[in-house]
Write a structure and sequence with these properties.
Distance between the termini: 132 Å
GO molecular function, one term: ubiquitin-like ligase-substrate adaptor activity
Pfam families: Arrestin_C, Arrestin_N
Protein name: Arrestin C-terminal-like domain-containing protein
Organism: Channa striata (Snakehead murrel)
Structural class: mainly beta
Order of helices and strands: EEEEEEEEEEEEEEEEEEEEHHH
Radius of gyration: 46 Å
Largest sheet: 6 strands, mixed
CATH topology of the largest domain: Immunoglobulin-like
Number of helices: 3
Number of domains: 3
Strand content: 35-45%
Helix content: under 10%
Low-confidence stretches: 301-327, 340-410, 415-421
Family: Belongs to the arrestin family.
Length: 434
Protein backbone atom coordinates (compact mmCIF):
# COMPACT_ATOMS: atom_id res chain seq x y z
CA UNK A 1 0.00 0.00 0.00
CA UNK A 2 2.97 2.32 0.52
CA UNK A 3 2.87 5.46 2.54
CA UNK A 4 -0.44 6.73 1.10
CA UNK A 5 -3.52 4.85 2.22
CA UNK A 6 -6.28 7.21 1.03
CA UNK A 7 -6.29 10.23 -1.26
CA UNK A 8 -9.65 11.32 -2.62
CA UNK A 9 -12.00 14.31 -3.20
CA UNK A 10 -15.45 14.68 -1.70
CA UNK A 11 -18.02 17.34 -2.74
CA UNK A 12 -20.24 18.87 -0.09
CA UNK A 13 -23.57 17.02 0.11
CA UNK A 14 -22.18 14.65 -2.53
CA UNK A 15 -23.38 17.08 -5.15
CA UNK A 16 -22.10 16.48 -8.68
CA UNK A 17 -24.26 18.75 -10.89
CA UNK A 18 -23.77 22.52 -10.71
CA UNK A 19 -24.90 25.65 -12.53
CA UNK A 20 -22.85 28.55 -13.94
CA UNK A 21 -22.22 31.17 -11.28
CA UNK A 22 -22.52 28.62 -8.49
CA UNK A 23 -19.70 27.75 -6.09
CA UNK A 24 -18.34 24.24 -5.73
CA UNK A 25 -16.92 23.19 -2.37
CA UNK A 26 -15.74 20.06 -0.62
CA UNK A 27 -12.74 18.44 1.05
CA UNK A 28 -9.57 16.64 0.09
CA UNK A 29 -8.87 13.65 2.34
CA UNK A 30 -5.32 12.32 2.79
CA UNK A 31 -4.66 9.23 4.96
CA UNK A 32 -1.00 8.18 5.32
CA UNK A 33 0.42 5.08 6.95
CA UNK A 34 3.64 6.79 7.94
CA UNK A 35 4.90 10.38 7.97
CA UNK A 36 5.06 11.85 4.46
CA UNK A 37 7.30 14.75 3.55
CA UNK A 38 5.63 17.05 1.01
CA UNK A 39 6.38 20.37 -0.65
CA UNK A 40 2.71 21.39 -1.06
CA UNK A 41 -0.81 20.06 -1.48
CA UNK A 42 -2.69 21.81 -4.30
CA UNK A 43 -6.24 21.66 -5.61
CA UNK A 44 -7.13 22.60 -9.20
CA UNK A 45 -10.54 23.21 -10.77
CA UNK A 46 -10.82 23.54 -14.55
CA UNK A 47 -13.24 23.29 -17.46
CA UNK A 48 -12.43 22.93 -21.13
CA UNK A 49 -13.65 21.64 -24.49
CA UNK A 50 -11.61 19.33 -26.73
CA UNK A 51 -12.52 18.08 -30.20
CA UNK A 52 -10.89 15.69 -32.68
CA UNK A 53 -11.46 14.34 -36.16
CA UNK A 54 -11.08 10.71 -35.06
CA UNK A 55 -13.78 8.67 -33.40
CA UNK A 56 -13.43 8.44 -29.59
CA UNK A 57 -9.95 9.97 -29.66
CA UNK A 58 -8.63 12.09 -26.78
CA UNK A 59 -5.70 13.59 -28.68
CA UNK A 60 -7.50 16.86 -29.19
CA UNK A 61 -6.91 18.76 -32.42
CA UNK A 62 -8.59 21.89 -30.98
CA UNK A 63 -9.18 22.97 -27.39
CA UNK A 64 -11.06 25.74 -25.64
CA UNK A 65 -10.45 26.70 -22.01
CA UNK A 66 -13.28 28.09 -19.86
CA UNK A 67 -11.57 28.43 -16.48
CA UNK A 68 -8.55 27.02 -14.63
CA UNK A 69 -7.99 27.84 -10.95
CA UNK A 70 -5.40 26.41 -8.54
CA UNK A 71 -4.58 27.11 -4.89
CA UNK A 72 -2.59 25.42 -2.10
CA UNK A 73 -4.41 23.85 0.81
CA UNK A 74 -1.15 22.90 2.60
CA UNK A 75 2.39 24.31 2.50
CA UNK A 76 5.74 22.54 2.76
CA UNK A 77 5.98 20.17 5.70
CA UNK A 78 5.43 16.66 6.90
CA UNK A 79 2.09 14.88 7.01
CA UNK A 80 1.93 12.88 10.21
CA UNK A 81 0.57 9.40 10.24
CA UNK A 82 -3.20 9.33 10.13
CA UNK A 83 -6.02 11.09 8.27
CA UNK A 84 -5.93 14.74 7.16
CA UNK A 85 -8.73 16.79 5.53
CA UNK A 86 -8.34 20.02 3.59
CA UNK A 87 -11.38 22.09 2.54
CA UNK A 88 -11.63 23.87 -0.81
CA UNK A 89 -14.07 26.18 -2.61
CA UNK A 90 -14.23 27.48 -6.21
CA UNK A 91 -16.57 29.80 -8.08
CA UNK A 92 -17.82 28.63 -11.48
CA UNK A 93 -17.94 31.44 -14.10
CA UNK A 94 -21.32 32.50 -15.49
CA UNK A 95 -20.12 32.00 -19.08
CA UNK A 96 -19.30 28.29 -18.74
CA UNK A 97 -21.30 26.05 -21.15
CA UNK A 98 -23.17 22.85 -20.35
CA UNK A 99 -21.23 19.60 -20.03
CA UNK A 100 -21.26 17.43 -23.14
CA UNK A 101 -19.72 14.13 -24.29
CA UNK A 102 -19.82 13.15 -27.95
CA UNK A 103 -18.03 10.86 -30.36
CA UNK A 104 -15.66 13.57 -31.57
CA UNK A 105 -15.43 15.96 -28.64
CA UNK A 106 -16.27 16.71 -25.03
CA UNK A 107 -16.93 19.57 -22.65
CA UNK A 108 -15.37 18.44 -19.38
CA UNK A 109 -15.21 19.82 -15.82
CA UNK A 110 -13.02 18.28 -13.17
CA UNK A 111 -11.39 18.90 -9.83
CA UNK A 112 -7.86 17.56 -9.22
CA UNK A 113 -5.63 17.36 -6.13
CA UNK A 114 -1.80 17.02 -6.07
CA UNK A 115 0.75 16.14 -3.39
CA UNK A 116 4.14 17.51 -4.45
CA UNK A 117 6.96 15.58 -2.82
CA UNK A 118 10.72 16.30 -2.71
CA UNK A 119 12.93 15.38 -5.60
CA UNK A 120 13.19 11.69 -6.54
CA UNK A 121 10.08 10.91 -4.48
CA UNK A 122 6.76 9.80 -5.92
CA UNK A 123 4.11 12.44 -6.54
CA UNK A 124 0.48 11.67 -5.86
CA UNK A 125 -2.62 12.98 -7.60
CA UNK A 126 -6.32 12.27 -7.85
CA UNK A 127 -9.27 13.81 -9.72
CA UNK A 128 -13.04 13.80 -9.75
CA UNK A 129 -15.37 15.00 -12.47
CA UNK A 130 -18.44 17.13 -11.98
CA UNK A 131 -21.12 18.26 -14.39
CA UNK A 132 -22.38 21.67 -15.35
CA UNK A 133 -25.95 22.33 -16.48
CA UNK A 134 -26.79 25.66 -18.09
CA UNK A 135 -30.59 25.71 -18.30
CA UNK A 136 -32.11 26.51 -21.69
CA UNK A 137 -35.43 28.29 -21.22
CA UNK A 138 -37.42 27.64 -24.39
CA UNK A 139 -39.58 30.69 -23.72
CA UNK A 140 -36.53 32.87 -24.40
CA UNK A 141 -35.71 31.32 -27.80
CA UNK A 142 -36.66 33.63 -30.73
CA UNK A 143 -39.45 32.47 -33.08
CA UNK A 144 -40.28 29.48 -30.88
CA UNK A 145 -44.05 29.83 -30.83
CA UNK A 146 -46.44 28.05 -33.14
CA UNK A 147 -46.16 24.85 -35.15
CA UNK A 148 -43.32 24.07 -37.53
CA UNK A 149 -44.56 23.33 -41.07
CA UNK A 150 -42.96 22.26 -44.34
CA UNK A 151 -43.96 20.81 -47.72
CA UNK A 152 -42.20 19.17 -50.66
CA UNK A 153 -43.23 17.91 -54.10
CA UNK A 154 -41.18 15.08 -55.58
CA UNK A 155 -41.36 13.77 -59.13
CA UNK A 156 -40.08 10.29 -59.95
CA UNK A 157 -40.07 7.77 -62.77
CA UNK A 158 -41.36 4.23 -62.58
CA UNK A 159 -41.83 1.46 -65.14
CA UNK A 160 -39.20 3.27 -67.22
CA UNK A 161 -41.68 5.55 -68.96
CA UNK A 162 -44.29 6.82 -66.57
CA UNK A 163 -43.63 9.81 -64.32
CA UNK A 164 -45.40 10.30 -61.03
CA UNK A 165 -45.60 13.00 -58.36
CA UNK A 166 -45.84 12.76 -54.60
CA UNK A 167 -46.80 15.78 -52.48
CA UNK A 168 -45.70 15.56 -48.84
CA UNK A 169 -46.74 18.07 -46.18
CA UNK A 170 -45.91 17.78 -42.49
CA UNK A 171 -45.90 19.76 -39.27
CA UNK A 172 -45.15 19.47 -35.55
CA UNK A 173 -47.47 20.87 -32.92
CA UNK A 174 -44.65 22.97 -31.35
CA UNK A 175 -41.09 24.06 -32.03
CA UNK A 176 -39.62 23.43 -28.59
CA UNK A 177 -39.72 20.42 -26.26
CA UNK A 178 -38.23 19.13 -23.04
CA UNK A 179 -37.44 15.55 -22.00
CA UNK A 180 -40.63 13.54 -21.50
CA UNK A 181 -42.81 15.71 -23.73
CA UNK A 182 -44.50 14.33 -26.85
CA UNK A 183 -43.85 15.56 -30.37
CA UNK A 184 -47.09 15.33 -32.32
CA UNK A 185 -46.35 14.85 -36.02
CA UNK A 186 -49.05 15.33 -38.66
CA UNK A 187 -48.28 14.43 -42.27
CA UNK A 188 -50.33 14.58 -45.47
CA UNK A 189 -49.22 12.43 -48.41
CA UNK A 190 -50.87 12.79 -51.83
CA UNK A 191 -49.77 10.08 -54.22
CA UNK A 192 -50.41 11.47 -57.72
CA UNK A 193 -48.89 8.48 -59.47
CA UNK A 194 -49.78 4.96 -60.44
CA UNK A 195 -47.38 3.34 -58.00
CA UNK A 196 -47.84 2.52 -54.32
CA UNK A 197 -45.39 4.33 -52.06
CA UNK A 198 -43.18 2.77 -49.44
CA UNK A 199 -43.81 3.06 -45.72
CA UNK A 200 -43.89 6.54 -44.23
CA UNK A 201 -41.67 7.31 -41.23
CA UNK A 202 -40.96 10.10 -38.76
CA UNK A 203 -37.65 10.34 -36.91
CA UNK A 204 -36.17 12.61 -34.26
CA UNK A 205 -32.64 13.39 -35.44
CA UNK A 206 -29.60 14.86 -33.68
CA UNK A 207 -26.80 16.51 -35.63
CA UNK A 208 -23.61 17.51 -33.80
CA UNK A 209 -21.08 19.65 -35.67
CA UNK A 210 -17.46 19.75 -34.48
CA UNK A 211 -15.64 22.82 -35.76
CA UNK A 212 -12.36 21.23 -36.77
CA UNK A 213 -10.30 22.39 -39.76
CA UNK A 214 -12.75 20.44 -41.87
CA UNK A 215 -16.01 20.39 -39.84
CA UNK A 216 -17.09 16.94 -38.69
CA UNK A 217 -20.85 16.16 -38.64
CA UNK A 218 -22.12 13.42 -36.37
CA UNK A 219 -25.71 12.48 -37.32
CA UNK A 220 -27.76 9.91 -35.43
CA UNK A 221 -31.37 8.88 -35.05
CA UNK A 222 -32.78 9.39 -31.55
CA UNK A 223 -36.24 7.88 -32.07
CA UNK A 224 -38.28 6.67 -35.06
CA UNK A 225 -41.91 5.73 -35.73
CA UNK A 226 -43.22 4.12 -38.92
CA UNK A 227 -46.57 4.14 -40.74
CA UNK A 228 -48.21 2.48 -43.72
CA UNK A 229 -48.15 3.00 -47.48
CA UNK A 230 -50.18 5.24 -49.80
CA UNK A 231 -51.91 3.65 -52.77
CA UNK A 232 -51.93 5.24 -56.26
CA UNK A 233 -54.10 8.33 -56.60
CA UNK A 234 -54.87 8.45 -52.87
CA UNK A 235 -54.29 11.17 -50.29
CA UNK A 236 -53.66 10.09 -46.70
CA UNK A 237 -53.32 12.05 -43.46
CA UNK A 238 -50.98 10.39 -40.96
CA UNK A 239 -50.62 11.31 -37.29
CA UNK A 240 -47.94 9.95 -34.98
CA UNK A 241 -46.20 10.79 -31.69
CA UNK A 242 -42.57 10.74 -30.58
CA UNK A 243 -41.60 10.86 -26.90
CA UNK A 244 -38.52 13.01 -26.26
CA UNK A 245 -35.90 11.10 -24.22
CA UNK A 246 -33.31 12.82 -21.98
CA UNK A 247 -31.02 14.66 -24.42
CA UNK A 248 -28.37 17.38 -24.40
CA UNK A 249 -29.95 20.75 -24.97
CA UNK A 250 -29.90 22.40 -28.38
CA UNK A 251 -27.76 25.36 -27.44
CA UNK A 252 -24.27 25.07 -25.92
CA UNK A 253 -24.01 28.76 -25.09
CA UNK A 254 -20.42 29.75 -24.45
CA UNK A 255 -18.91 26.99 -26.60
CA UNK A 256 -17.55 27.81 -30.06
CA UNK A 257 -16.32 24.34 -31.02
CA UNK A 258 -19.48 22.19 -30.76
CA UNK A 259 -22.94 22.90 -32.18
CA UNK A 260 -26.02 20.72 -31.51
CA UNK A 261 -29.16 20.73 -33.66
CA UNK A 262 -32.37 18.68 -33.60
CA UNK A 263 -35.03 18.15 -36.24
CA UNK A 264 -37.88 15.83 -37.11
CA UNK A 265 -37.44 14.04 -40.43
CA UNK A 266 -40.58 12.90 -42.24
CA UNK A 267 -39.92 10.61 -45.19
CA UNK A 268 -41.16 7.88 -47.49
CA UNK A 269 -39.15 4.74 -48.07
CA UNK A 270 -40.06 4.76 -51.77
CA UNK A 271 -39.87 7.04 -53.69
CA UNK A 272 -37.16 8.99 -51.89
CA UNK A 273 -39.18 11.92 -50.46
CA UNK A 274 -38.09 13.68 -47.29
CA UNK A 275 -38.56 16.94 -45.42
CA UNK A 276 -37.19 18.27 -42.12
CA UNK A 277 -38.85 20.19 -39.29
CA UNK A 278 -36.33 21.93 -36.97
CA UNK A 279 -37.10 21.74 -33.24
CA UNK A 280 -35.37 22.87 -30.04
CA UNK A 281 -34.66 20.69 -27.02
CA UNK A 282 -34.42 22.61 -23.75
CA UNK A 283 -34.79 22.35 -20.00
CA UNK A 284 -37.68 24.77 -19.31
CA UNK A 285 -40.82 23.97 -21.30
CA UNK A 286 -42.92 26.46 -23.22
CA UNK A 287 -45.57 28.33 -21.25
CA UNK A 288 -48.50 29.44 -23.40
CA UNK A 289 -49.80 31.74 -20.66
CA UNK A 290 -46.47 33.55 -20.56
CA UNK A 291 -46.60 33.99 -24.33
CA UNK A 292 -50.13 35.41 -24.19
CA UNK A 293 -49.20 37.82 -21.39
CA UNK A 294 -46.18 39.07 -23.35
CA UNK A 295 -48.28 39.51 -26.47
CA UNK A 296 -50.94 41.43 -24.58
CA UNK A 297 -48.39 43.67 -22.84
CA UNK A 298 -46.31 44.38 -25.94
CA UNK A 299 -46.62 48.00 -27.19
CA UNK A 300 -47.93 48.75 -30.69
CA UNK A 301 -45.40 48.44 -33.46
CA UNK A 302 -43.30 51.41 -34.50
CA UNK A 303 -44.88 51.35 -37.94
CA UNK A 304 -48.38 51.69 -36.47
CA UNK A 305 -47.23 54.51 -34.19
CA UNK A 306 -45.59 56.25 -37.11
CA UNK A 307 -48.73 55.94 -39.22
CA UNK A 308 -50.88 57.29 -36.40
CA UNK A 309 -48.49 60.19 -35.86
CA UNK A 310 -48.48 60.98 -39.57
CA UNK A 311 -52.23 60.87 -39.76
CA UNK A 312 -52.48 63.14 -36.72
CA UNK A 313 -50.02 65.57 -38.28
CA UNK A 314 -51.95 65.63 -41.50
CA UNK A 315 -55.24 66.15 -39.73
CA UNK A 316 -54.04 68.95 -37.50
CA UNK A 317 -51.21 70.42 -39.54
CA UNK A 318 -53.19 71.22 -42.68
CA UNK A 319 -55.38 73.84 -41.10
CA UNK A 320 -52.48 75.23 -39.10
CA UNK A 321 -50.02 75.72 -41.95
CA UNK A 322 -52.28 76.53 -44.93
CA UNK A 323 -52.90 80.34 -45.19
CA UNK A 324 -56.52 81.38 -44.91
CA UNK A 325 -57.84 82.85 -48.15
CA UNK A 326 -60.31 85.70 -48.14
CA UNK A 327 -63.91 84.53 -48.24
CA UNK A 328 -65.70 84.91 -51.53
CA UNK A 329 -69.30 85.54 -52.38
CA UNK A 330 -71.19 82.33 -52.85
CA UNK A 331 -72.21 82.33 -56.51
CA UNK A 332 -71.90 80.16 -59.57
CA UNK A 333 -68.55 80.82 -61.22
CA UNK A 334 -67.80 80.28 -64.90
CA UNK A 335 -65.44 77.42 -65.67
CA UNK A 336 -61.75 77.88 -66.39
CA UNK A 337 -61.11 78.37 -70.14
CA UNK A 338 -59.25 75.91 -72.31
CA UNK A 339 -55.66 77.16 -72.81
CA UNK A 340 -55.04 78.91 -76.12
CA UNK A 341 -51.80 78.70 -78.09
CA UNK A 342 -51.12 82.41 -77.77
CA UNK A 343 -50.10 83.28 -74.25
CA UNK A 344 -48.98 86.55 -72.76
CA UNK A 345 -45.37 86.90 -71.66
CA UNK A 346 -46.66 87.55 -68.16
CA UNK A 347 -48.54 85.20 -65.90
CA UNK A 348 -51.47 87.62 -65.67
CA UNK A 349 -54.51 87.06 -67.96
CA UNK A 350 -54.95 89.16 -71.07
CA UNK A 351 -57.62 89.65 -73.71
CA UNK A 352 -56.92 88.41 -77.25
CA UNK A 353 -55.59 90.94 -79.79
CA UNK A 354 -57.88 93.00 -82.03
CA UNK A 355 -57.38 90.76 -85.05
CA UNK A 356 -58.82 87.78 -83.19
CA UNK A 357 -61.91 86.79 -85.16
CA UNK A 358 -63.91 83.76 -86.01
CA UNK A 359 -61.92 81.37 -88.13
CA UNK A 360 -58.56 82.45 -86.69
CA UNK A 361 -56.42 80.04 -84.83
CA UNK A 362 -58.27 78.91 -81.76
CA UNK A 363 -61.42 80.78 -82.84
CA UNK A 364 -63.52 77.69 -82.83
CA UNK A 365 -63.04 77.03 -79.10
CA UNK A 366 -66.31 76.68 -77.24
CA UNK A 367 -67.13 76.86 -73.55
CA UNK A 368 -70.00 75.28 -71.72
CA UNK A 369 -70.66 78.33 -69.62
CA UNK A 370 -70.39 80.85 -72.47
CA UNK A 371 -71.51 79.34 -75.78
CA UNK A 372 -70.41 82.43 -77.74
CA UNK A 373 -68.16 82.26 -80.79
CA UNK A 374 -65.98 85.06 -79.47
CA UNK A 375 -64.10 84.11 -76.30
CA UNK A 376 -62.26 87.38 -75.73
CA UNK A 377 -63.67 87.97 -72.24
CA UNK A 378 -63.55 84.37 -71.08
CA UNK A 379 -61.07 84.46 -68.23
CA UNK A 380 -60.57 82.61 -65.02
CA UNK A 381 -62.63 83.96 -62.13
CA UNK A 382 -59.47 83.94 -60.03
CA UNK A 383 -57.52 85.99 -62.54
CA UNK A 384 -58.26 89.27 -60.81
CA UNK A 385 -57.66 88.26 -57.28
CA UNK A 386 -55.28 90.93 -56.12
CA UNK A 387 -51.96 90.14 -54.57
CA UNK A 388 -48.88 92.33 -54.08
CA UNK A 389 -46.68 92.35 -57.19
CA UNK A 390 -49.46 91.33 -59.55
CA UNK A 391 -49.62 93.44 -62.73
CA UNK A 392 -51.31 93.17 -66.08
CA UNK A 393 -50.17 93.13 -69.68
CA UNK A 394 -49.64 96.52 -71.40
CA UNK A 395 -50.41 95.38 -74.98
CA UNK A 396 -54.16 95.13 -74.62
CA UNK A 397 -56.44 97.54 -76.53
CA UNK A 398 -59.43 99.40 -75.18
CA UNK A 399 -62.23 97.30 -76.51
CA UNK A 400 -65.90 97.38 -75.67
CA UNK A 401 -67.51 94.08 -74.82
CA UNK A 402 -69.18 92.38 -77.76
CA UNK A 403 -72.94 92.78 -77.83
CA UNK A 404 -74.66 89.74 -76.54
CA UNK A 405 -71.65 88.58 -74.57
CA UNK A 406 -72.00 88.36 -70.82
CA UNK A 407 -69.06 89.54 -68.78
CA UNK A 408 -68.19 87.30 -65.87
CA UNK A 409 -69.08 88.56 -62.44
CA UNK A 410 -66.01 89.56 -60.46
CA UNK A 411 -66.29 88.47 -56.83
CA UNK A 412 -64.82 90.99 -54.42
CA UNK A 413 -63.31 89.59 -51.27
CA UNK A 414 -64.18 90.91 -47.87
CA UNK A 415 -61.06 92.83 -46.96
CA UNK A 416 -62.19 93.42 -43.45
CA UNK A 417 -61.14 89.96 -42.37
CA UNK A 418 -57.73 89.70 -43.97
CA UNK A 419 -54.49 91.53 -43.28
CA UNK A 420 -52.45 91.44 -46.43
CA UNK A 421 -54.40 93.51 -49.13
CA UNK A 422 -54.19 97.21 -48.24
CA UNK A 423 -55.62 98.67 -51.50
CA UNK A 424 -58.85 97.95 -53.27
CA UNK A 425 -58.46 95.73 -56.33
CA UNK A 426 -58.73 97.39 -59.76
CA UNK A 427 -62.10 97.32 -61.40
CA UNK A 428 -62.84 95.24 -64.43
CA UNK A 429 -62.67 98.22 -66.81
CA UNK A 430 -59.43 99.44 -65.28
CA UNK A 431 -57.80 96.06 -65.65
CA UNK A 432 -58.83 95.84 -69.30
CA UNK A 433 -57.79 99.43 -70.18
CA UNK A 434 -54.41 99.36 -68.47
Amino acid sequence: MGKLRQFDITFDKNKEVYSPGESISGTVTVHVNQPLLCKAIKVNCNGFCGITSKLNDTAWTSEEQYFNSTFSVADKGTLKQGEHTFPFKFLIPDSAPTSFEGNYGRILYRLRAFIDTPRFAKDYNTEKAFYLLRLLNLNEVPDIWGPCCSAVTQQFTYMLVKTGTVVLKAQTNMRGYTAGQVIQVTASIHNQSGKTTGNMAASLMQRVTYETKKPTHDLRTIAEVEGGVVKPGKEVEWKEQIIVPPLPQSSLAGCDLIKIEYYVKVSLKSPDVMLTLPVHIGNVSLDEKLHLSKTAASPPSAAAEGSAATASTLDTGTSATTPTLPPRTAQKLPPRPIPRPRVSSHNSPSAPPADYHEGAEGGNLMNNGFPNKRQSQLVSPNAFSYAPGLFFSQNQQNKEPTAGATAPSIPHPDYGVTAYPHDAPPSYDESCNT
